Amino acid sequence: MSKSIGHMIASSNPLRVLPKTISAENIPDVLIHEIIDGIPLYRKGYRDVLAKTKTVEDIMGCSSLQFFIIDYILGILYPSIDRQKYIIATNEAGLHLDKRNNLSGDIMIFDKDVLTIDKIDTHYSKVHPKVSIEIDLDVELETFTENGYITIKTQKLLGFGTDKVIWFLTKPKSVMIAIKDGEWQTFSWDHDIEILDGITCNVGKYLKNKGSEFA
Fold first, then answer.
1. pLDDT digit string (tens) for 144-194?
2. pLDDT mean across residues, the chain
3. Are residues 100 and 38 in contact, defined by beta-carbon separation less than 8 angstroms?
4. Contacts for 94-101: CB closer than 8 Å, 24+ residues apart
5. Are residues 130 and 196 in contact, defined by beta-carbon separation less than 8 angstroms?
6. Considering only Cβ atoms within 10 Å of each terminal Cβ, which end of the chain, N or C, has fewer?
7. Is residue 96 helix, strand or coil?
8. pTM value?
9. In the chain, what's the furthest Cα-to-Cα distance?
10. 172-188 burial by CB neighbour count: b if 16+ within 10 A, else e?
11. DSSP 120
C-alpha cells in the first residue's frame, strides 16, 4: 500500500546546519558533488581525502550495489525505450538549474524535443529531464538531514520541470516516487515501478532472483 511521502521522508526543517570545522576555502572544487541554494554539498568521503587517507579517485565511484542496480535499470531501458524520442543520461549527469543550483543524477531521461541538438554542449544541461532516477545519496550529510536532502533535491527537480523523480534507497529497501503536481509515494522496492511509457522495473525482485543478500 502506498503512503504519503509527507509521512515518510519530508522534513518540516530540511536544513540542519552543523558547526563548520573545515573552511570551504580549503576544499577543492572536485570534491563538490552538488550545489543547492548556493550551498556546496561534498562527496561522501571528502574528509578522508582532506586527511590524505584516500585519494579523490577513491571516492568518485559508487558502490557495487549501486552500479548493479543502475545496470539493471539501464538494461531494461535501452531495449525498451523509444530512442527516437528520448536520450538516456548516466555517469553523474549534471543539471544547471541556475547560478545557485547544480545537481547531478544517476540516470536521467530527456525528451529530445526539450533537449534539442542546439542545447547540447560541454557544460551541464540547462534543460530538465523528463525522469530522474537516484540510487542512494552520494553526499556527506552536513548541511541537510537525509530526509531534508531527498526532499529539497526532489522539489528542485520537479520545480525545474522534471515530470517524475524516483529514489531507490538500499538501506530501507524502498522506492520513493514523486510526480509533478501529484502525491509523493513510498513503497517497498519489491513492487513493480513504472519508469515511463509502461516500462517497469522491480529492483527487489531482481536482487532476490540473483541471490543477493540485499533483496
1. 899 999 999 999 999 999 999 999 999 999 999 999 889 999 999 999 999
2. 87
3. yes
4. 94/124, 94/125, 95/124, 95/125, 95/126, 95/128, 95/129, 95/157, 95/160, 96/123, 96/124, 96/125, 96/126, 97/156, 97/160, 100/35, 100/36, 100/37, 100/38, 101/35, 101/36, 101/37, 101/156
5. yes
6. N
7. strand
8. 0.86
9. 50
10. eebbbbbeeeeebbbbe
11. -
Asked whether 55 and 122 are in contact (CB, 8 A), the reply is: no
Rg (C-alpha) for the chain, rounded Å, is 17
CA distance 58 to 172: 26
Q: Kindly state the cell numbers that stand for 190.
A: 519489491
C-alpha cell recorded at residue 121: 554542449
Among the listed residues 189, 184, 180, the one whose alpha carbon sits nearest the alpha carbon of residue 207: 189
